[in-house]
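[job 4471] stage=fold_predict status=RUNNING
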Amino acid sequence: MRTYFDTSILVAASVDGNVHHNQARAALELAKSAKMKGKNYVSGHGLAEAYSVLTRTPFRPTVYPSEAWKILDENILPYFQLVTITPQMYVETIQECAERGWIGGLIHDAIHLRCAREADCERIYTFNVRHFQQLAPDLAKRIGAP
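[job 4471] inference complete, writing structure tokens
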């Protein structure tokens, strides 16, 4: 099964004190298993977003930039294929948000969904299930928390 992990899953799996840590960590460990290796996707956007959240959120203990990189380098990059979209796809995604009246941070969810579509993922993991399903009702059955 081709799975897509959004930023909320990557961050929750990486921070012990996160309310969703156990379920996100279990999903990450499954993705890291030989059984799932090579069939898991994260976007370049999501990777940058995870670094941003890990280094700016007031976690206790603090996640320093070198630690955030180590988390991504050791726990994400070896087990996930990186999905990127073209400049034109970014333009189209932003235009779609504007035409539908979507504001603020929904653009980030829309980019995640575009990347999951490009990777033809059968399962999209997020803790923002409601937002993702509202943005992509045609993918609603594929979207869920781990």
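[job 4471] summary: The helical segments are 7-14, 21-32, 44-56, 65-75, 87-100, 106-118, 129-135.
[job 4471] exit 0
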